[in-house]
Amino acid sequence: MREKLKKCRKIVLMLVCILTVGLLGGCTSSKDAESYLQALLDASYKNDSKTFVEIRLGTQEEAQALYNQGIDTGVSAFCSSLGVDEEYQEEFRQIYMDMLAKVRYTVGSAQKQSDGSFAVTVSYEKMNIFKPALELYQSDVAAMANEWAVSDDGTPSEEEMMREVILAFKKSMETVLAEVQYDEAETMIIRIELADNVYTPNAEDVAKLEKALFDGE
Predict the structure, then answer these.
(1) pTM value?
(2) What is the side-by-side order of every strand in the sheet holding 118-125?
(3) Structural domain includes residue 12
(4) Residue 97 belongs to what domain range?
(5) How many domains is the chain built from?
(6) Is 171 inside a domain boundary?
(7) pLDDT confidence of 152, banded at 50, 70, 90?
(8) 43 secondary structure, DSSP code
């Protein structure tokens, strides 16, 4: 399970990576770049389309559709990494959404670079979710195994035990998330780059931020 947790922490972040020239063209300001990144992160993690709509990346409905697509993809990858069968994916959907909603980041100032790109400072606090959830899960499963061993009703079927074990991990995540703890704030740079007259976040920077938001290494 520990190795699976290392994989499942690689959360799938579905960003809208297309911005037309009309939105960020030749007269683009640092404020535009800041708002752009804010819109992408809020829409992806928080299901908050306010800035997305304000800067005309798209409509609220389009933002919602993109968020739903990201959740579908993310839950599938999350459960696959845990070895959870597809039939249990819906059990994890809400906890996955709640986890993403609680990430902490603050989009700071943007500095325009000589090549026309922008370097946007982002402050973030790493969420300690997977390690404490694993510890609680291991304790709960050990207790369940002891209970099954002495039960007068006999040992549950393999299918029943599998379901109980899977839901024990879900419960452990819910418990930890209810009072989740964070590390001290740190900062990193996300580059907003211009390619073929379209501004997009640097993929490596986005992956680095995504990794930094959660514990688990």
Answers:
(1) 0.82
(2) 104-112, 118-125, 186-195, 198-201
(3) yes
(4) 2-129+186-212
(5) 1
(6) no
(7) low
(8) I
